Amino acid sequence: MKVGRPLANLGPRLLGERVDSKEILVGPSGCLVGAGDQTLVCEAIGAGVALCVFDPVAHLAGLAHVLLPGMPKDDGAAARHAGTVVDFLVGELTAKGATTENLAAAIVGGARGFGVPSSLDLGQIVGQQLRAKLAEARVPVLLDELGGHLTRGVFLHAENGRVEVRSFAQNDYLACELLAA
Amino acid sequence: MNLSKTNPLSLTDLVASTPDLPTLPAAVTAVIRETESPTASAQSVSRLLQQDPSLAARILRLSNSAYYSLSRQIMEIPEAVVVLGMRTVRNLAMIAGSYPWLVRELKGYELGPQELWAHSLAVATGAQCVARRARQNDAEAFSAGLFHNIGKVAMNVWLETRVESLYSFAGEERNFDDIEREVLGFDHAEVGAHLAESWNLPKPLVRAIRFHHRPEEANDRLADCVHIADYLAMSAGLNKGWDGLRYRVDPGAFVRMGFELESLESLMAEFLGSLESHGKLFEERAA
Fold this sequence. Notes:
The complex is a heterodimer. By secondary structure, chain A is of the alpha+beta class. In chain A, about 20% of the residues lie in helices and about 35% in strands. Chain A contains 3 helices and 10 strands; from the N terminus they run αβββββαβαββββ. Chain A has helices at about 10-15, 80-95, 120-135, and strands spanning about 25, 30-35, 40-45, 50-55, 60-65, 105-110, 140-145, 150-155, 160-165, 175-180. In chain A, the strands form 2 sheets. In chain A, strands 1-3-8-9-10 form a 5-stranded mixed sheet, with no helix packed on it. A 5-stranded mixed sheet of chain A has the order 2-5-4-6-7, covered by helices on one side. In chain A, α2 crosses α3. Chain A is globular. Chain B is mainly alpha-helical. Chain B is about 60% helix and about 0% strand. Chain B contains 16 helices and no strands. Chain B has helices spanning about 10-15, 25-35, 40-50, 55-65, 75-85, 85-100, 115-135, 140-145, 150-160, 165, 175-185, 190-200, 205-210, 220-235, 250-255, 265-280. In chain B, α7 (about 115-135) packs antiparallel against α8. The model of chain B has no long low-confidence stretch (mean pLDDT about 90). The interface between A and B is large, with 39 and 39 residues.
């Protein structure tokens, strides 16, 4: 489902206001799981990638703000790296009752500065690795929105798997997708 | 006031007619200059800071934060200088002195309360990481990173009335500083450098603020440090303003610092680690 109209009530949140306690903020290189009526929020995704994963049966959602490609040097940083975050997040979700076969994903972000050579383009490198790892885990990607120069806000609703992507620069909606077949 | 291209004002006129212009406590600028002097001592730095009791109180509070995990509480400025060192106390003085300005909401840039602060501290932290890796002066890099966007605080009042003009550039592939110059005649880096000059900050700091978007013109490693750190912070999403990643990256900055381009990943990992620990500056020390 693509929605092209702005959602006016999302604006203030991107400017730092908290709407209610059901929103859980995921910071840079953070990774969290939410359930029920909770909404997971990455307030600002720059070159990094927001990995959203959802189980429509268990109503469980996971959101990670992935900033680094490859594998971590120590086990404690599995959620930070594209090479390990998919297994980590799927593991967190299944431990809470999700079923791998039900999962669907979205990847959003990967903005780049002007004149950035491919070796400095973290978003594309992270994005490619996430796609490969999601394919390996047989988790379909229902929304793939990487690139551009915009900082994006990402909201993932655990109740229905709705992913909302909003831009600062244009003060409007970029995309909305339900992570359920 | 007319800020159009057809009737441009000088930078001095613009700054002179800006209401509520940012200021830096005199004790902070004095300490910055003193710590660059070969004759600086713990006594001379302490004496300068003690001239501003409110600033001194804020420095003591930061000195006793969870970040430093000291086994005992620091009660006086001379003790802070001895225990933490002159460079650290200089950084704390700058944090304490600039905080009231950097936490402001800047509607012209679509920055909420504290958002410029979060970005500035992130760039200061990043610049420190970059400088350490290249064996450059990391205290100076921290200062330049902290103040690099101070010009936005001054420009905000003018930009706020022209937000619609900004939106007209939304679909264009242009650097944000180009757009600022188009809309206001100046960019925040120029205005920030002008402010830094008026505060009598050291010339290398002024140059780094002026050239942080085009470091190739500075021929100065400090500007390269801030440029790379700015890109790290923006990449990590620590820049919530309208400008996003409308930022021209100069790969030459990496080369001039002696880094391989591939080192961005390891720099980012180091930066994220440092950023996490810098957050503890604002946490109370465990009893």
